[in-house]
Amino acid sequence: MNRYTLHETFVVHQYSFDKWEAEPHNHNYFEIIFVEKGSGYHTINGIRFRYKKNDIFLLAPEDTHHFEIEKHSGFTHFKFTELLFSSKVNLPDRKYWLQRIEQLLHHPNIIPGDVISHEEDRSIIWDIHNVVMEEFKNEKIYYQEIISNAISTILSIIVRNISDKYSSHNRNVSINDSRIDQILGHIRQHVYDNDLTKISYMANKFNMSQSSISTYFKKATGESIHQYVTKYKMKLVEYRLQNTEFTIAEIAYQLGYTDESHLTKTFKKYFSMSPKQYRKDLTVSK
Length: 286
Description:
Blueprint: E1 2-4, E2 10-17, E3 25-27, E4 30-44, E5 47-51, E6 56-59, E7 65-80, H1 94-105, H2 119-138, H3 143-166, H4 179-190, H5 199-205, H6 210-221, H7 225-243, H8 248-254, H9 260-271, H10 275-285
Parallel strand pairs: 1-3
Antiparallel strand pairs: 2-7, 4-5, 4-6, 4-7
Helix pairs in contact: 1-3, 2-3, 5-6, 7-10, 8-9
């Protein structure tokens, strides 16, 4: 399988096809695909569905996809890496944008097709798409900051649509979503808040006793809730050590640890080294 690599922080590509020539492939970057015209089929991670004009797709790193074109189609691709949200760009509060990225990066592509379920949100995103196209084309002063904030807004709207569609509060949750999927989704969404990942809170939320939800979770995943939450947090710590300039203390605070020493102790159990040493080794390897 081909793997496409993006060396720039952000690029825009536009394509027009009667036939899609590329083989199924994945990337090392995020990609937002806007369908400007045409229709056919789009396959993401083995799931095939129809596409049409004005559809919007999001591909995370490692997602595999390809198109089958029925009617002449035009696409605009916003391709970007996490570095678009680096500390070199002033966002109002980077940790919240980072959470948006992490929710997408560490969650499988759970929407089989167009990511937008609310038409008013679709209109907003297409308007932002037009702004980004103009800024990218003209490169006027502050265009990089404008594009960064625009993509952040698009991602926030996409996450909102995903959350609305798959939240356990939503009564329209697909019948194919099992209870364990809903519990795992809740943990991934609220892993930054210790109170919302407590067994007592989740038991009440999912109408189960604390012993029942603990037993059910262990049987379904092979891990306790505490083990799963801790391992998931360690993935996020590792990701932030690799891709941000946050201090260890800041990362500890962001992920709900009482202090840096508590995070370091837990991190050592999983990586056999401290977060400080892990980041130092990354720097050396580069």
